[in-house]
Amino acid sequence: MHVPVLLEECLDMLAPAVSHPGAVLVDATLGMGGHTEGALTRFPDLHVVGIDRDPEAITLASARLAPFAGRFTAVNTTYDHIDEVAAEHGTDGLVDGVLMDLGVSSLQLDDEERGFSYAHDAPLDMRMDPTSGIPASELLATADEHELTRILRTYGEERFAQRIARLVVAERGTTPLTRTSQLADLVRRAIPAPARRTGGNPSKRTFQALRVAVNDELHILEDALPRALTSVRVGGRVVVESYQSLEDRIVKAVFREGSRDTTPPGLPVMPDHTDAPLRLLTRGAGRADQAELVRNPRSASVRLRGVEIVSPWRNRS
Asked: Is 137 exposed, middle or buried (0-12, 13-18, 19+ CB in 10 A)?
């Protein structure tokens, strides 16, 4: 059973917005339903709408949440459609809170056949929705060296991106990369021995980069955040858990910009559109404490941020 990361911290942050009768929370990354189960248990008058692109996650989470029949609705889509989901399931087209627990879910990571982990030999897939898109094996078979280098460098922050990409292109003509063990071995051979001695498994950045690219994760997040903020009523809250620096930078930038008052100094009248529409709920990013790390080792890299909607969100770009 999935153990949700920083559950109580997330619920404490959401509580002022979702404790009242008729409140609606969107769990934008449902996964195995751990955060939703916690929210439904703690807030007896709350309705949760859970979004996930993975049909298997929808099935398993719905079974887990069956005791809350009538208070939970599952939607099979990517969470950049959150504005459409809120319009359909919210009150007057708006919801009271949004929770995003980003990245790969425990369901996907623990299912060896999904190909997300370099620790097990499996088909090189990595799709969060196995029914759509192209698997990682196809991406590795078709992208040129320049594109592979860009993916590894941008999405994995891999300093040996070009060496890895060059070896992929050199070897794929005779030995197609179709298994996770093949890719892990290739990365190990591409990275110089001294660099492999520290920093954990040398494949982790490559696997992260391919997963992000295959699932278009960063573009979806960039689209989803402003749509989520637009979908939450004044007084509502948006809480986001990130697990890698690329995600957290996006969240931090949007929240910081939205919490900044853009009123020019010295104006005798304060124009409404310059007021900051967001109020930050965290100073920096929240981290897991030692007790959380012992209970759930996957919380080690989490960054928790939240905002309150002070006035209707308008994109400032």
From this structure: buried
Cβ(182)–Cβ(206) under 8 Å? Answer: no
Residue type, 233: R
**Long-range pairs, 193-196, Cβ under 8 A, ≥24:** 195/159, 195/160
* DSSP assignment of 130-187: TTSS--HHHHHHHS-HHHHHHHHHHHH--TTHHHHHHHHHHHHTTS---BHHHHHHHH
Res 2: pLDDT: 67
104-118 burial, b for 16+ CB within 10 Å, e for fewer?
Answer: bbbbbeeeeebbbbb
pLDDT band (50, 70, 90) for residue 269: low
Closest CA to 136 of 102, 104, 101, 174: 104
pTM: 0.90
Cβ–Cβ under 8 Å, residues 176 and 137: yes
Model confidence at 33: pLDDT above 90: yes
Of residues 210, 208, 140, 214, the one with CA closest to residue 175: 140
Please, which residues have CB within 8 angstroms of residue 212's CB and are 6 or more apart in sequence?
155, 156, 218, 246
* Dist. CA 49–CA 28, nearest whole Å: 8
Which residue in 151, 157, 162, 158 sits closest to 245, CA to CA?
157
Residue 3's pLDDT band, with cuts at 50, 70 and 90, is confident
pLDDT per position as a tens digit, 160-180: 999 999 999 999 999 999 999
Beta bridge partners of 48: 25, 72
In this structure, the dihedral spanned by the alpha carbons of residues 195, 114, 68 and 73, taken in order and rounded to 10 degrees, is 100
8 A C-beta contact, residue 247 and residue 218: yes
